[in-house]
Amino acid sequence: MPSYVVVLSTNAKKQLDKLSDPIAKPILDSINELSINPRPIGCIKLRGREGYRIRCGNF
Q1: H, E, C per residue of 3-59
Q2: How far is Cα 20 from Cα 50, in angstroms, rounded to an integer?
Q3: 1-37 tens-digit pLDDT
C-alpha cells in the first residue's frame, strides 16, 4: 500500500502548539495515521470545497 506525506500548514502548527499535550497527542496521532490511510472510516467529504474531515474526540 502506498504511503502519503502529511504536510501541516503554519496556521495548523500554531493551533496545535496552543493545545495542552493530553489534547494534542491524540490529534497528532490521527494526523500521522493519515499517511497510511488518507480516508479512514468515518471521514466526511467537505461541502463547497475540496477535501475531507475526520473527528478526533471533540476536535
Answers
A1: CCCCCCCHHHHHHHHHCCHHHHHHHHHHHHHCCCCCCCCCCEECCCCCCEECCCCCC
A2: 30
A3: 668 999 999 999 999 999 999 999 999 999 999 999 9
The full set of domain ranges for the chain reads 10-53
Q: Which amino acid is at 51?
A: G
**DSSP state at residue 1:** -
pLDDT attached to residue 11: 97
Compute the distance between CA of residue 1 and CA of residue 35 in angstroms, rounded to an integer: 11
Specify the pLDDT at position 48: 95
Separation between Cα atoms, residue 11 and residue 2, nearest integer Å: 27
